[in-house]
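User: Assemble these into one structure.

Assistant: Restating your components, then the assembled model:
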Amino acid sequence: MAAHRCNIFMLVFVLCGLTYVFVRADIEDTNHVKDAESVAVDIARKANIGASLRSTKTEDQTQAAEKERQWEAETNPADAPSDNKADHVHDTMQNLDSRPAPYAKDQTQEAAEEERQWEATEVKEADHVPDTMQTPDVPPPTPAKDQFQEELVIRPLHSGDIYASFQFRTMWDTDFLRGSKVSHYRLFPKSLGQVISKFSVRELHISFTQGYWRTMQWGQPFLPSPPGAELWVWFQDTVTDVDGAWKELTNVLSGIFCASLNFIDSTNTVQPSASFKPLGLGNVTDQRFLRYAVLPREIVCTENLTPWKKLLPCGSKAGLAVLMKSEKLFHSSFHSQALHFRPVCQDWKCKSTVWELRQTLNVVFDLHTSGQGKREWSLFKMFSRTLTEACPLASSSKVYVDVTDNPQGELFELSPTTPLLSQAVVLGDRRTYSVYDLTNQATFGQTRSLNMLLRWRAAESGDMLRPLLHGERYVAGYGLQTGEIHTLMYNNHPYRAFPVLLLDTVPWYLRLYIHTLTVTSKGRDNKPSYIHYQPSKDRLRPHLLEMLVQLPPNSVTEVTMQFERALLKWTEYTPDPNHGFYVGSSVISALVPSVVAMDTNSTRECPLFSSFFPCKEESSYFMRVYTEPLLVNLPTPDFSMPYNVICLTCTVVAVGYGSLYNLLTRTFQVEEPSPGLAKRLANIIRRLRGVPLL
Amino acid sequence: MVENNVDTTGYTLFWFHRLMIFYGLLFVVVEGLALLDLGVSPYAGDVFHETPLIIYFFHFVIDYAEIVFMMADALTAVALYLAVKDYNKTVFRKQKYALEAERYPLDCLELIRTPKEMYYIPLKVAMFYLLNPFTILSCVAKSTCGLNNAVIALFILCTVKGSSLMSAIFLALATYQSIYPLTLFAPALLYLLQRLYIPVNWQRSSFWLFTTQYTFMYLGSLCVMVCLSFFLLSSWDFLSSVYGFILSVPDLTPNIGLFWYFFAEMFEHFRLFFICVFQINVFFYTIPLSIKLKEHPIFLIFMQIAIISIFKSYPTVGDIALYMAFLPAWNHLYRFLRNIFLVSVVLLACSALFPVLWHLWIYAGSANSNFYYAITLLFNVAQILLVSDYFYAYLRREHHLTHGLYLKRKDGSEATLVLK
């Protein structure tokens, strides 16, 4: 009964919120709400992008969204027993019971539920109930202008590796767009803020990754990133010279991050039409304002980490950032640091927008092999540091440890134990986490330091959930003349087909032949419903291929395309030309059907790692998969002999010219034998003497 | 629609051919058509460099591509057969008049060509074209070079037949396809003037009248073709993508020519200079050759075609096949050729070594680019020697026809001819 009452409350809450928002949207002239709606609509539309890609008028979108929302609200009571709509407002222990358990392990969780105390959910419930009463009139107290949150998620992987993911979120409440010059910075890094306001950046996503994320062994990362450096930027629609701004921005960022981003030029920049939609609020969906570039060759190391750490309000002095010591971080199987800047709603009503800066750092440690076969880890083992305090500027500072597979403690033992548990829906899966709140002094105990220790009991961990979608890529063929790029996309869902967007950026020196494109799944032709192909221009721009492919359930879809390798000018080769040339990863973006209901309320308080990609539908979640980058060899000239070649070829041309010139200018004459030397001398003397010549 | 045309089994064969015929393969035309199907301009990328008319043509006949290429070759052979037959008649008539006028020295009788030996020449020319391995290779690889050859052969036929309008149209078509046949304008004009008994004389108004007329026909039809191309795709992109591509040589894929390795190894600040030098080199010979050979325009055509096929930016074996087809027409020059044995051996050896060294470089990895480059150099030297040898022999025969075959020195001993 409690569940139903709660649901009704939530319903009232949602309806009130919506009416308020719509009334405000009509009255106020601000675009914020429209922004929010259109973005939401856009994300929903990704599934059927083939139909129309151009942004329609925001009014239409708002109306459409309105209808959709109302429809949702109406249907809410109807489907209460099954995938409960209201649970996207709050995950409560109560409505867990009423939902059919998607996986067997949920049942084991239920047993644990009784004993454990769930983190703050009840309390929040209580907090929000009064809200629903007074929603339209009195907004909740506005939060502090700038905010900083930090969190660390540790997930033991099934392969025996440990995945540690740091996320730092800085909220920046400012309005640099309206021409007001921002000179005062509190928590937001000034170096970045100035750049962003100078180049009128709407969204900026940058990642530096060393190593390749092995989806089949490790599952999905919270934030995917391709090997090397990736940069994509949405500019404000006020920017007129987007290419110029992009060029300058890459150079500035190159300086800020000590990275070779200045190698981004027109030959590796593309404007994807569908794959990279804005992740924050915004009604700009015109790809003219988007630039995307990948540098697969970029090596990530300490010099990139240090400037990245400096952007944090506490630097690496306090909080979670003290763990980031490069000697340990770079001694890992996978290292990825990223920075995402985007506009988001300030509060749950989305009256105004704030700028969100998310800094993430993902590391996979292979402690299994380095620890002499003993499967145990601790913070100290991983980072050679322990936690002693939260960052004083942080409004929240938490460490999450994934204990989903270990509800009874039969697999591993975690110490010190924490009474707090939290549940979050991440990537279509409901996970349970032990939470250590660093702002609470009790967490640190008597030793004044927190060093989590996880000791495995069982030798084998349970079965990993196979990722529903993953991709592979390789080059087929032999020789240096031609080749074939194969991209494999796996849909591991047992019965649901879903569409994916495949984005391929291939440098110009691999000349793709689009007419050799084949897409096959289950041995049959699979015609893409949408293809956007931009052929390359030599030394000017790369190939861009985007297509929407429907992946049948439980299948492998293979995309192949032939290419020809060009011979470059000798100055265009890298210093190690026989190492090969890198081709950036393919990007597979998809709305993957979810087994558990996804959380569609993006403004709700939830762990940072679960709230990056905005979610529009409960039944599916957005996922991006990067394939391996390719290493392709090109035919090389002999670099040691430019002079020889110039001389030899010029000689051949001169032979042609000379022989023709000879024949053209000379005439045939009877050869008169020339007299010998003695005779000629004698003739000279005779001429001097005036005697007849011989 | 497109997938059916290029059968997958033929790909291995195709990639092998790609080595000798880099430029203008049907494969690329199919790519252009596929781009059009996707709604992208074929000239948006840097793969397709054929003219819009070719794309329009293949839009209709793509399903019968093999037959089209075979028919193009057959057409070339027939046109060459008829042209050479007609030309031989003219040569014979001229020779008869000269004999009757007793203009030939008496000891030149053995240089006089007999109807018996001239009877099989047209057939030999046609067979030399059709049975040339280079032609067969070009046809099997479905290179659009076969079509260009057909256009040039038709141009020669119309010129020899004296139809100035058709000659101008076909010449314009050949120029439109690849700029270089522009240099054939001079020999065609000379031949047509000769046929109409108009002397090349700057003072004569009839000379100017005909020249202007022919130029206008040529430029007019060229203009029509370019405008037609514009209306087919409604953009001027093709100009830079077709002609800019030929002239500025951005693509350095190995072929049998001289350009690719030279510009791959070129220092960046000299690139423009050498591109200019190499391109001017192709067009440069037209004026001196026209002056030297103004009495012999058909031989001039042969010379021009040969020079184009050696010095053009993306030569293919199909171009070589066209000028080699003319060699039987000059078999009366055989006695004056100096190093035909050496040249033919080198040409044969190089043709055999091309695929071998290509394989060693690209597939086996046991050789590097210099090996293949060396063979292209040798092949081109052999071609140059072949052409200049024929030129020499032609000039020498003409010299003997005026000065007698057995020349004597002043002291009465047997003399040797030298170029001075």
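The first helix of chain A runs from residue 2 to 27.
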